[in-house]
Fold each of these.
Amino acid sequence: MIHASAAGKVTLGGDLTVNRLGFGAMRLTGKGIWGPPADREAALATLKRAVELGVNFIDTADSYGPYVSEELIAEALAPYPPDLVIATKGGWERPGPGQWTHNASPAHLRQAVEGSLKRLRLERIDLYQLHTPDLAVSFDASIEALAQLREQGKIRHIGLSNVTREHIERARKIVPIVSVQNRYSFADREWDYVVDYCEQNQIVFIPWAPLTGGRDAHEALEKIARKRNATPRQIALAWLLKRSPVMLPIPGTSSPQHLEENIAAAAIALSQAEFEELSSVQPPPISLR
């Protein structure tokens, strides 16, 4: 079985080195990212299998469920292996299934961090990410609140999600930023310039929705997948790993079988010609799932 370490390693903040293929825990929840999973045992088994396969970076958020994803991670994996990094996020609230509302006020972020610490059974969160800027709240005030929590020892490192280069530069004037998480895949490259900025500044880029594509993109994936005796999903992940050394894909699933398929992509090293062939395809994004 392929181990996640085959993807190589990346370092967050100079002191947290993880395998460069992680796991996104959003899909462990119920429909609409709301409530418990339809199959709780499968969700727990998926988390345990991820660690067995060498995944040592798991990304979640308090809004997934809400709270359900964090609780499942702790139930399945605590006490945690010493090399496992749990990253979580705050700044969204959930009034109902499929509904997301902004709240990145300093008071809410302080409360959110305390809640995540309790649910994850941690004394300090290795990577805490602002889930999204809140137009009703000063962005600087949100970052300053996280910086204070870092000073208090409740957060080890700070990351950003759903941000522009301007957001990153503003945040870096207040506190070190070690990661950025935006939507990105080989067929959905709106944030190409942010990937480049992150690489230039040694900031880890965590693509969410890493398995999006389109009809033309799917055909390109199929072509290379046939040559490689692989699946289109695996080729999509291999493209991300080739795209930048700071890339840390976090494909998510609630199926141990899909998990194993995703992790096997760690062993696929695309040639430069294959990479360029895929890079030339930029169709409108739709889900491969």
Amino acid sequence: MKYRFMAAHRDEHRVEKMARNLGVTRSGFYAWTRRGKAARREHDERLTASITGIQREVKYRYGSPRMTRELRRRGLCVGHNRVARLMRDGELGARRRKAYRVTTRSNHSHPVAENVLLRHFSVPAANRVWVSDITYIATAEGWMYLCVVLDLYSRRVVGWSMGRSLGAELAVNALLMAVLHRRPPRDLVLHSDRGVQYCSGAFRRHLKEHGIRQSMSRKGDCWDNACAETFFASLKTELIGDRIFQTREQARRELFEYIELFYNRRRLHSYLGYLSPEEFERTPARGAA
């Protein structure tokens, strides 16, 4: 206790004077200070090892806020600033994000649905509102395109598909996967941008068949579909970074692992109180449609 007092006030008073008044020695204080520094270094080394292990498990996908939460879930009492410092010093951050590429083809003559969602991104139950979007994936064999459908309640990817072209089949396949897995009630809302895939006759027929109400963003307003955009930002940061997949098959395998095994089941989501989408839906009084 005396040494702590001296350390807290050493900028105000001389160490020799405080030691004399408190009945301790300067050498004892300096020995205590060295032991404290050594203990902090040792703790930092153990914490850095834990951070490194977690990053290897999640393939370097966590930034410092999510890493802090993961460490706390594992029983470690840590602060965000300390974790951020150790990750910065050890170059243990998440992968960098790749440049954005436009995939929306909204220059078409198909009818456009009204914006039913109106940026109401907070949903009280599962299978009430889904959102969908499309992005590109670069491979050495050529472009691949990924379409996803997310449940706004849990941000879970409930349907997805990959293809070599941006045709309507890409969006239809993702929709059908979502319907098969979730079997949603009628009057579910599905929101997307105005891309030709979502405006196509084939996509609209499947919406009608399953009683799904269509909603579309305003022209050129990406914020109307911000949740889907956020998912793709995480995907590009945490899985792809600056990489180009060697083959389309490699892209399919790694995207399956990211979506089904990591993102849906394990990744801590800040919006969900740092639970995974699967955990969030399993929590009592949640997930029921």
Amino acid sequence: MAKIAEKAKAQQALLDKVKSEGRDGLNDEELKQFDDLQAEIDNLKKQAEVAQKMEENEKYLNEPASKAVIPVVESVQEEKLDDGGFKNVGEFLHCVKNGDPKGRLKALETSDVGILIPPQFSRNILRLDGEEELIMPRATNIPAGNPPDAPFTIPYLQQGADGALGGIKLTWTGEAQQVADVKDPVIKDLTLTPHEVSGMATINNKTLNNWEASGAFVETLLRRAWINGRDAKFINGSGAGCPLGILKAPGAIKIKRNTTGEAKYIDVVTMLGRFLPEALGGALWIASITLLPILMTMKDEGNNYIFNAGDATRGVPPTLAGLPLKFTGKTPTAGNEGDLMLVNCEYYLTKAGSGPYVAISEHVKFSTNQTVFKIVANIDGQPWVKDPLRFEDGKTDVSPYVILK
């Protein structure tokens, strides 16, 4: 392969010479040199094919005639947590509404926001879902701890103009030479304080009374209310009494779109050029669902589509410019700031708190024979990077959050 590269380089040199001299094409002698090089390349390609086939044959012959069969464990049973003595979450909610003659609710912690959901059910309600939600399954998640709602402080580097390492520099010194004074790294604290968040779910009274059959449905309903609530704030939150979302991240870089109200190939390329290189491995495009028609028909300068629809049957996600793409309705609509984002969610921190608790109201939907359940939990989230990171060239800023403006 090295020889092929060498011959191809020689061919390119002939073409570059013609171009530099302003000629229309190769002369006879140059044409012969080019053809001779091509003949050598073709011969080397055949040799490479022979070597590859021989390697495959040798690998095949070295394989054992009878391979050991290793059983594959399809699933691992999860640890059974305390369910409070309830068969499912449907029975638990039925008792919250109508009272529990067995007195099981007395053993559960209560607060001014409701009754603590037993751990066996709350685990399923709070479970991360990489398909339905965007940020938390990919974020750096800090558990509740004890006490669960206490603030959690973690350092971050004050980067910006001090460089990607906040002023930390390497100095190459010879023997017995004094190390020059360097600027001390500026380290500041980021504090996560779990905020109260509520999700509302409406359930028909007939469904609730048939708790044995409706348990899984009710659990899914509460879970989706919780997932949508936290995910929306991790994206759009203002930080005032709620998480600070990625769209409001002070360390984000915002790229002005090439054409007002549109998203073009040049916008995608520009966003990639301002993304933190070491964060590309976990990078993800987040796009408004209203942007789908534009992205699906987007072409590069060679008239090639850069959107790949993926394969849902095999768990292969759609991609844009080779990176995974998720559509959502939680971002601004097409043409508005934030309709397209390139992020690495590992650079987003979440901190869980107490809960979830549940409370009910029979009065809000009394006329329609429905009961409203409110699920309350505590959580916070913040971007870890507080300033765009500056490269060693002293002028190029990058970030793990790049937003189309």
